[in-house]
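thought: user wants a sequence for this fold. calling inverse folding tool.
action: design(structure=
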């Protein structure tokens, strides 16, 4: 039996999973690490913490599984996107990594638009300049910490720093590099034009590979630390969402997935590159060679329900503890008793601004239509519906772009809710499925490793062999017709509130 290893370097921790060649998990280990917020809006992590978590989690799965490291044919890496790791001439980390959710770069976003141009950025990098992407972080360090920028000899993404520590190679791959805003997305390589206009030396950047390509081998030093066999191949891997797509079988036209985690993501595969000139969705190179994906993001999806639970559902949380069940199970049951439209109550899920389709940092959450007839059950249903309408907004943009969205997978915490999955099926008017294996990004990059090392001929072939459907929910025609009426009204709310949100942001009292 051959084995493959998937390592997912997330924001809260690193998860390492050992799979056999059929995709069955043999052992899993997660090690957590802290997030640093030195100022409001800042978000940083220590790259060394990621490395220690990788070393310890790999050692854990080897010990738990008792698999001979020589039987592990390849390693795949997934990770949080957009983070900035800077190394000096001795390949030492210069400063903490500025990670994806950091918001300090508003001035640098303006600089990007001035030097490259808003329309030109979208034409080349397929996305508008936003604070979360890596290019703005590089400019921030140059503008605010010139001594650190002067010392910098290598710029890496989080998972690619782990690759360097495992293999000694400076390499990246197209899906994760797409989120740096330095890649020519149609050409799948660094953009000389963007780099020249930003005065960023191309030599600082790693070589770009396709996701299943072998990028290096485990060094003797890394082998001694992790227990892996020296010489084991490490493939390109993928950014977290691109890896999740592989792990759920979203590798062909028509296929898509919806994640309801803290944020919400609608991700669709496409063989033909399609770029939204309005910048409402992100177009990136995907982990299938020669293909792309389009991704819409709802900032506060599961976070909306978590906020409601934490602040307004103390009784339900105490009851759930006594019943030994998840509090979300009780919230699900409460919302199930409420009819579609939550008795004419709307929730706008913009707690922390919004990305798709509005790209408005000033947008805020709102309940609209609240009256004395409404109870807590109605508010819970309204929150779940509001998030679902926002995700439907993402699908609508994709359909405007002629992206086929007809086969939907559901994942993330919200994807475990039968009620939420039914809402999505009814609103998307297509079947919504879940995968039998829930390892997500770790499985995705393990599949890439299986392809790169010859266990399978292609990514679609591997997914057909490995990914199994667990549950499937079809749209209910009667529900779809009702939701269409409510969704039509929901779409009128943001335009009516946009000016008020802007005024609210500037309100001084």
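)
observation: tool returned 509 residues.
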């Amino acid at each position: 039996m051959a084995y493959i290893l998937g390592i997912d370097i997330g924001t809260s921790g690193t998860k390492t999973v050992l799979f056999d060649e059929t995709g069955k998990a043999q052992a899993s280990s997660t090690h957590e690490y802290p997030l640093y917020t030195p100022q409001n809006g800042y978000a940083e992590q220590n790259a060394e913490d990621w490395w220690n978590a990788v070393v310890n989690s790999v050692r854990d799965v080897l010990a738990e599984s008792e698999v001979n490291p020589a039987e592990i044919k390849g390693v795949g890496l997934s990770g949080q996107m957009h983070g900035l790791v800077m190394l000096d001439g001795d390949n030492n980390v210069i400063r903490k990594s500025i990670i994806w959710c950091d918001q300090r770069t508003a001035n640098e976003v303006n600089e990007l638009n001035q030097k490259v141009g808003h329309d030109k950025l979208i034409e080349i990098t397929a996305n508008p300049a936003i604070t979360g992407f890596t290019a703005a972080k590089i400019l921030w360090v140059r503008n605010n910490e010139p001594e650190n920028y002067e010392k910098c000899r290598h710029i890496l993404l989080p998972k690619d720093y782990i690759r360097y520590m495992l293999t000694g190679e400076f390499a990246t791959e197209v899906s994760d590099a797409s989120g740096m805003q330095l890649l020519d997305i149609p050409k799948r390589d660094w953009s000389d034009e963007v780099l020249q206009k930003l005065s960023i030396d191309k030599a600082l950047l790693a070589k770009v590979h396709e996701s299943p390509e072998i990028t290096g081998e485990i060094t003797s030093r890394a082998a001694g630390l992790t227990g892996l066999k020296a010489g084991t191949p490490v493939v390109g891997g993928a950014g977290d969402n691109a890896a999740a797509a592989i792990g759920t079988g979203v590798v062909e036209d028509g296929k898509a997935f919806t994640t309801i985690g803290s944020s919400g993501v609608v991700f669709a595969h496409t063989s033909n590159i399609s770029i939204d000139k309005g910048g409402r969705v992100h177009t990136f190179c995907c982990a299938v060679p020669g293909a792309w994906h389009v991704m819409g993001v709802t900032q506060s999806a599961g976070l909306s329900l978590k906020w409601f639970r934490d602040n307004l559902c103390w009784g339900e949380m105490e009851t759930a503890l006594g019943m030994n069940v998840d509090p979300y199970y009780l919230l699900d049951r409460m919302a199930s008793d409420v009819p579609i439209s939550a008795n004419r109550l709307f929730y706008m899920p913009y707690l922390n601004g919004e990305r798709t389709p509005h790209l408005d940092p000033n947008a805020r959450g709102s309940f609209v239509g609240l009256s004395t007839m409404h109870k807590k059950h109605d508010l819970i249903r309204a929150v779940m519906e509001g998030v679902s309408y926002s995700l439907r907004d993402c699908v609508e943009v994709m359909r405007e772009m002629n992206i086929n969205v007809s086969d939907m997978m559901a994942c993330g915490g919200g994807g475990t809710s039968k009620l939420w999955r039914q809402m999505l099926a009814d609103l998307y008017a297509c079947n919504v499925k879940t995968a039998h294996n829930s390892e997500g990004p770790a499985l995705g990059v393990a599949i890439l490793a299986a392809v790169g090392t010859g266990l399978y001929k292609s990514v679609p072939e591997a997914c057909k062999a490995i990914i199994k459907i667990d549950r499937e929910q079809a749209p209910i025609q009667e529900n779809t017709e009702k939701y269409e009426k409510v969704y039509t009204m929901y779409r009128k709310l943001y335009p009516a509130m946009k000016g008020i949100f802007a005024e609210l942001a500037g309100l001084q009292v």
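thought: summarizing for user.
answer: Here is the designed sequence. The mean pLDDT is 95.
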